[in-house]
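USER: My hope is that you can spare some time for a protein that puzzles me. I am handing you a single protein, as its sequence and its fold in token form. Walk me, if you will, through where the backbone shape changes along the chain. The protein I mean follows directly.
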Amino acid sequence: MASIKVTTDTVAALMKSAVPNKTTYYFDDDLAGFGLYRTTTGTGTYFAEFRPVAGGSKKRLKLGRVGTLKANEAREAARKAIANAALGTDLAKSRADERAGVTVAELMKLYIARTRDKRKASTADGYQGIANVNIIPHIGTSKAAAVTVGDVQRMRSKVGSARGKYAANRAVAVLKAAYAWGTKHGPPKSRGVTYVPRGINPASGIHRYDEHERDRPLTAAELLAIGAAMIEAETVGLPVDAGDAKHAPKGQRVVMSPYVTAAIRLLMLTGARLREILHLRWDEVDLEHGVLRLPDSKTGKKIIFLPTAGIDTIKGLTRLGAFVIAGESAGTKHEKPRADLKKPWVSILKHAGVSGVRIHDLRYAFGAAGAGEQMGLPVIGALLGHRNASTTKRYANAADEVRRRAVEQIGSKIAAALGGK
């Protein structure tokens, strides 16, 4: 047993030191009962140690792992546990009692159902995807009331490593919202009982990864290459090694569905969101007036204007079911819209020799093209369906780039004239 000042720097130095040959405990110099221990595997864990006010032996409460829980966060959690013990509240016992409550998976299911009833189905679908992929696999079986800040930190770290910092941030945000809802609502006819005890939200205060705009502009040459790759994909097909078919023999070509290439063209030509195109129904298409009339979208009821090329793209499709972009279940009793375009999009990009472009970047390319044509930001925002003008402002960068090129061209001509050329 040793005594140290538990800070970010001292803990970092301790974790870099030699691994102990037995579990070693380190107590904080300032807060009695707070510390961390390090095992023979090198793992460090923060803890709080206290004696219940009613007497009895000391109890030790694990707070979270070093690396996923910050030193100051662990100190605050320890202070809370020790203070509650002094008031007669045993947090270790409370956790055991709370195991009778709902699991995180059950809490997410309840919260998403409420979202589906009170808000938009598309929002609920998004939450469901985040829960299924990034929350439930990590802490879904844990009782919601027993989950700690350290548990959420570990989930965030794992999701960040596997799926990226944006996915991790959104997983924490959705989990935080579910807990906030769970502390205010409970089972029907259970007055005063909530799904999660009031005051518990382990996702609150979790450090977020820094986020930066990821929009990737497309050059004219890249658009040309992507267009050529799509024509090849829907006619003679792309080579198997382009990544669209795992088990087909090498050298064989796979013809891509015309509905896939049509979806990509419509995304490029309209600036619509992915789900707005994949979920587009034939009864929402008005080719006479050149518009798509969406009864619902991320920003509510919406009209998407079609250019002539967009009208021609839709006219070239055969109607197989309710959805314009026909999926595998098109025309069946339980028809569903196509779920994604990721795999065919990756194949097209690979064959086109283009990298680092997401499907969502096609929406940015549309907005940037509008800015490049000197269209006002309000017009671009209206076409893209932005609620806030601030969302559209980043497309001004594209207009700036056009101005730079124009200045360079003009400047070159003037410089040439001044030089007698």
In short: The chain is about 50% helix and 10% strand.
